[in-house]
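Appendix C: a fully annotated inverse folding record. The material below is reproduced so that readers can follow the format used throughout the book. The structure is listed first as tokens, followed by the designed sequence.
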């Protein structure tokens, strides 16, 4: 996919999946920013292809991830996703629709990249943390771990249900390699977050991590139990650079870490495979605030910036950097915030402030 966007004058096909709840509002914001940055770049053009996926699509047509939308995602250069699922729209067995997880698994987007950055002391509940003090990336394994059994059916009459923690050599090796490669380009520290004092699967994960660590002698490798990491993230988040962990631990720690820098509205993410990628804010559809034009668009806008950088075309990389700088500039002023961060701006007003600084 990357090769196709390397040539000179290039149209980049972006599949946009607004999804449910505030997903619709924040993707509209991110697309507006992308349109604005496109006018400032040479040699690239963005073509957006909006696809209906999610709980709303299920209510309309009985399938939350229609095959046509899946194929559009697979054939796009890249995918921008809002948020999916609604608490009152469930499968007959009671589980929520999670087409975003199906998409991850079917496209083998094994590396969940979740940057956590503090832009201003105003946004953190921690004392003595200021701009840039918290700057880490959680690398979450996306395709196995404790989520690997999520589609299994349990007998409703049973008195015992098991969820299997699956760690494969292939899965562990590739996620650890992604984490070390990232760390080698950053502050050269990579910590494995596991539970190797209790679970055999985690002992295995640690042994694979140790093997991969030898390929990166310049990176300082450490191993930390997940319960201790929950403590350390609150006590001294500035100590960490890249954290790598299994699926469920990554799910939980990314919400905790987002809470340190202003909440879910400030946490972008990219789900990367070897040839495809989906970028989305780490938050869900937030039905409690949907449709009010008050959702924080920053996480989705930063996800769009990550997307442009991942495309690796010189112009899109510039575009991604421009968006990052614009967000940083706007967030220097603590009065420019949406309601989740005690501000008064609407989703679109916040978006326009960022566009002004492009
Ligand atoms: P999921 O399990 O689908 O990831 P969730 O249950 O973790 O979702 P979210 O939808 O992420 O829940 O919302 C958690 C809380 O954070 C809610 O109170 C929601 O209003 C708030 N929130 C999430 N995203 C945003 C945003 N972009 N702007 C403002 N508030 C947000």
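Designed amino acids, in order:
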């Amino acid at each position: 996919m990357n090769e196709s966007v390397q040539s000179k004058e290039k149209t980049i096909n972006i599949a946009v999946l607004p999804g449910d709840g505030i997903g619709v509002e924040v993707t509209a914001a991110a697309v507006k920013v992308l349109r604005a940055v496109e006018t400032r770049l040479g040699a690239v053009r963005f073509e957006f292809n909006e696809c209906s996926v999610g709980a709303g699509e299920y209510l309309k047509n009985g399938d939350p991830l229609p095959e046509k939308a899946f194929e559009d995602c697979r054939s796009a250069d890249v995918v921008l996703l809002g948020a999916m699922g609604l608490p009152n729209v469930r499968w007959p067995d009671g589980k929520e629709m999670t087409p975003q997880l199906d998409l991850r698994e079917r496209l083998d987007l094994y590396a969940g990249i979740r940057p956590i950055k503090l832009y201003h002391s105003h946004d953190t509940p921690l004392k003595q943390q200021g701009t840039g003090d918290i700057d880490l990336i959680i690398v979450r394994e996306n395709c196995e771990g404790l989520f690997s059994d999520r589609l299994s059916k349990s007998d409703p009459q049973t008195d015992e249900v098991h969820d299997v923690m699956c760690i494969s050599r292939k899965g562990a090796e590739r996620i650890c390699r992604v984490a070390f490669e990232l760390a080698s380009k950053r502050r050269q520290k990579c910590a494995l977050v596991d539970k190797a004092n209790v679970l055999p699967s985690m002992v295995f994960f640690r042994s694979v991590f140790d093997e991969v660590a030898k390929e990166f002698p310049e990176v300082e490798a450490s191993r930390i139990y997940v319960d201790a990491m929950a403590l350390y993230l609150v006590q001294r988040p500035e100590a960490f650079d890249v954290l790598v962990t299994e699926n469920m631990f990554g799910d939980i720690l990314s919400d905790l870490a987002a809470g340190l820098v202003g909440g879910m509205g400030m946490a972008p993410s990219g789900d990367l495979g070897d040839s495809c990628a989906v970028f989305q804010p780490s938050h869900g559809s937030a039905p409690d605030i949907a449709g009010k034009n008050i959702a924080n668009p920053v996480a989705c806008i930063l996800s769009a910036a990550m997307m442009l950088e991942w495309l690796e075309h010189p112009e899109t990389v510039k575009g991604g950097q421009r968006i990052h700088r614009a967000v940083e500039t706007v967030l220097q002023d603590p009065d420019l915030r949406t309601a989740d961060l005690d501000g008064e701006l609407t989703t679109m007003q916040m978006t326009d402030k960022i566009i002004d600084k492009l």
